[in-house]
Amino acid sequence: MAKFSINKQYLLSLALVFLLVHPASAVLAAVRPNILIINSYNADAQGTSNNISEFMDEYRRLGGTENVVIENMNCQSFQESPKWKGRMQAILDKYIHSLRPRLIVLVGQEAFISYQSQENPLLKDIPVICGMVSRRIIDLPVDSARAANWQPRSIDVSDGKVRYPIRGGYLYNYDVDANISLIRKLYPQTKNIAFLSDNSYGGVALQAFVRQEMTKYEDLRLIQLDGRHHTLYTIVDELRSLPPHTVLLIGAWKIDAKGEFFMRNASYVMMDANPELPVFTLSNAGFGSWALGGVMPTYFIFGRSLAREAVEVLEKPKNYDMKANFVENQMMFDYIRVNDRKLSLNVLNGNDYRFINKPLTLYEQYKYHLWAFVAFLLFLVIGFISSLWFFLRTKKLKDSLEVSEQELRVAKEAAEEASRLKSSFLANISHEIRTPLNAIVGFSEVLLGGGYTPEEQKQYMSIIQRNSDLLLKLINDIIEVSTLESENVEFKYQECDVVEFCNQLLLSLNFADSSENHFRFASSLESYVAKVEVQYLQQVILNLLSNADKFTKQGTITLEVSVNQSFIEFAVADTGCGIPQEKQQVVFERFIKLNDFAQGTGLGLSICKLIIQKWGGEIWVDPAYSKGARFVFTHPIVK
To answer: Which residues are CB-contacts of 528 (< 8 A; sequence separation ≥ 6)?
Structure first.
């Protein structure tokens, strides 16, 4: 005992000396997670990530300075649910005994029920708020073998029957009665309700709630399509064999019996199995792709609201009046599905409901084009006034310099040059805008006249839209030229694999383009990483590819990349009509078009040249290429 006492004193002395020498260590040891966020899933999940990110942003905006720690349980299928209690216990053991948090935030139903299953008396004094949790929960099974056939009873969180009360947050209040009422109004001959749920905790909890609620309806038979016993392929067989007068109510379908995750495309597979089956949704699963509609929660990113509640709980920890909020339900329909089935919603007797996928009005479809057209007209008026002002100013300057013959000659030449540039600009711009502007004005007057079929109106509006796009592109090109000529352009170089970059560019172009030409990539390099201006490099390459596509009919367009000692060389070659040798230098001038009947502003190649010169490269037409036209440009290798 004496020896142990001496050693203990010795160790305590060493610890005291260490804290005196390193006082920062004592501070670090005292840091605790004042707010502990326990998330059911991996933090990379989209919904979870958005909510936690919004929570953190709002909490800091409100002046929160507490230390926040995030723990993830990585919960997946229901078969592994017996393990969740242990995972939660392992998380809590890290903090509860020595570094007890002031607030715990539970995100997701798995985290919520795992927390409620704990038997730790220290948890009773820690306030809890939650999100992404249903009002109706179930207990966890004791082992994985039992989980597959577990038929638990539904528990109402709001009844106060949970072990650790909730001081705030948001609960989804799924409404089976409202959905059954809606189904009976739209399909009064219904005899069977088939309920589809998946192999997740949420799916099994919804199944238990629906099973409990359906006991009220003796005239309706409940058919359970349980994802714990089915894969996507076996559930399709079940859907095909459903009896007549059956309506499907979807709860959830993300995880099947094998633990495989499914996204939106699973809805289309199941829809094809029984296309005539009426489908409604309790939780918005399948909504927008398969389901007609339903009464469902109005899901939203609640992170900011949860942060405000967290601040209130931390400021008033003894305010036991705070309770979780129920997320409001909303009756919603898919406009396309309702119209396909020719359903009349008049039987709803004025019930408030909303549509998705409803077509936009004519103004909603084309309001940006109309605004762009008005803005363009305003731009022309301002340009005309500015040009008139410059002209009058030049004339005044010319009159004032008549005192000296030499000065008069200089002033006259300057005025003639300014007039020539102005006239050239107005002539070029007028030539470019005349055709689309005439088309817009002409077909606008035709539409105002009325008396046309919907197909003719659609055709006229398409012409107006196409010509509006041409006018907008002309304005954008002029602004681009002006920007590049200014000194305010800053290139942002970043490392990029130029070979992979070009491959991806051509891949997206081949996928999206309706051209009859074949786009290909040629390079002796498998990979080459360099610092380049990615945004402007993409703009130059796309401009050259688009230009080649315009003057090539059913041919081949090739993008080439090679590397020299100090620069990367790019080339775009086509098998089109080509460029006469005497015209190969002037094609880079503004408003130069070798074919006046070809669509375009004549500014594309000029913009490419300005960009390339800005980053210190060169661009030219290859005079030795005879199969069409071949444009070559360089990008310096940035050290």
So the answer is: 497, 498, 499, 561, 563, 568
- Structure confidence by residue, pLDDT tens digits, 353-375: 999 998 887 877 788 888 898 99
Tens-digit pLDDT profile for residues 140-178: 998 877 888 889 999 998 877 788 888 889 999 999 999
Its pTM surpasses 0.85: no
Q: Domain 494-636 classified CATH 3.40.50.880?
A: no
Find out whether 38 and 104 touch, Cβ atoms under 8 Å: yes
Q: Which amino acid is at 295?
A: V
Please state, in angstroms and as integers, the Cα–Cα distance from residue 349 to each residue in 91, 177, 336, 356, 559, following that order.
52, 17, 21, 20, 63
The tokens describing 272, both together, are: 């094809």
CATH topology identical between 362-485 and 494-636: no
Distance between CA atoms of residues 291 and 553, nearest Å: 45
Query: What 3-state class would DSSP assign to 519?
Result: strand
Q: What pLDDT was estimated at residue 315?
A: 87
Helix (H, G, I), strand (E, B) or coil at 617: coil
Going from N- to C-terminal start, the domains of the chain cover 19-172, 176-297+330-356, 362-485, 494-636
CA–CA gap between residue 81 and residue 42 (Å, rounded):
16
Helix (H, G, I), strand (E, B) or coil at 547: helix
Pairing of strands 556-563, 518-522: parallel
Domain 19-172 sits in CATH at 3.40.50
Helical residues (DSSP H) of 316-358, grouped into ranges: 335-340
CATH of domain 176-297+330-356: 3.40.50.2300
More confident residue, 376 or 441: 376
Type of residue found at 454: P
Question: Taking the domain 362-485, which CATH number applies?
Answer: 1.10.287.130
Q: Count the helices and strands in the chain (H runs, E runs).
A: 18, 22
Q: Give CA separation, 453 vs 145, 177, 249, 457, 463, in Å.
A: 65, 46, 41, 6, 16
Nearest 5°: CA angle at 614, between 609 and 620?
30
